[in-house]
Amino acid sequence: MTAHDAIDTLHLISISHQRLEFLIVTSELVFEHPLNEKIRTYLRVETLFNQLEQIKTTLDESDSSVQNFFRTLFDLNDVLDRCEWRSDLLKDLDKQRQLFRQWANAPEIDTSKIDELVLKTDNYFRTINQHPKLANLIKEDRLLSLIRQRLTLPGGACSFDLPQLYFWQHQSLEQRISDIEKWLQPFATIAEVMGFLLSMLREQSVAEQVIAHGGFYQGQREGCAMLRISINGNVRGYPTISGHKNRFAIKFMSLEGAITNDLNFTLTCCRSFQ
């Protein structure tokens, strides 16, 4: 990465913003697709935690609102339970920290910004390294354990099946928010660090304009961890993607079938942490 690239990247990452796996940005639709399992997990955790935060701000006493919160919470727990989140995060944080230190040696670089990023990365590294295990989080909470058992049954959230849940959802909003914050707290730091790494992955990449001839595009890029595909919001279609870190194929589809005309779009290959 050149000095100019590093300066441009630092300018971009200084802009605070959050993205979901599927975003609407002005007149464009931006689709993100992971090309390895680790980034797939990062994106899922980012999406699920953002959903939980949104649910928390709009929580009411309705069955659908409450059940949506708990199902999303259990999904988040399951995603993290199936991966080696601690070792993955520590490795990526260390790689990112080394990259920041390389940038510090570039001419005309804002070293104060580099210092901030290194300090943030160091703090994240220590926090993740000391973070307690999540394995028994649901089991050790009696209410969460009961709700989880019943929500797996069709119609299992009825008041006669789960009087505990019915009682909880009619407590004061302050009490419910307090409980929710307690349940989310163990996941919050993990989601924050994954979001930080995803923002680095996004902002350290360069977009290019390409054409899908007949609605199809095949590409080769070295070490690609995630694809970002931006299409005009007026296009009545979406991309389907297959591939791995070095080779991928993109086929554009509509709800009625395959798109067969040429289509201009913006492609960004977000490369793995170096």
What does this structure look like?
Pfam families: ZapD. Cell division factor that enhances FtsZ-ring assembly. Directly interacts with FtsZ and promotes bundling of FtsZ protofilaments, with a reduction in FtsZ GTPase activity. Its main location: cytoplasm. The chain has nine helices and nine strands. The protein is an alpha+beta fold. It folds into two domains: 3-19 and 37-203, Orthogonal Bundle (YacF-like), CATH 1.10.3900.10; 207-271, YacF-like domains (YacF-like), CATH 2.60.440. It is globular. The termini are close together.
Give a quick set of tags describing it.
Cell division protein ZapD, four-stranded antiparallel beta sheet, 9 strands, ZapD, YacF-like, 9 helices, septation, alpha+beta, cell cycle, ZapD_C, 274 residues, five-stranded antiparallel beta sheet
Map the helices and strands.
Blueprint: H1 3-13, E1 22-25, E2 28-34, H2 37-57, H3 63-81, H4 85-103, H5 111-130, H6 137-140, H7 142-151, H8 163-168, H9 173-203, E3 207-212, E4 216-220, E5 224-232, E6 238-243, E7 247-254, E8 257-258, E9 263-271
Antiparallel strand pairs: 1-2, 2-5, 3-9, 4-7, 5-9, 6-7, 7-8
Helix pairs in contact: 2-3, 2-9, 3-7, 4-5, 4-9
Query: What percent of residues are in strands?
Result: 15-25%
Radius of gyration: 21 Å
Q: Domains counted in the coordinates: how many?
A: 2
CATH class of the largest domain equals Mainly Alpha
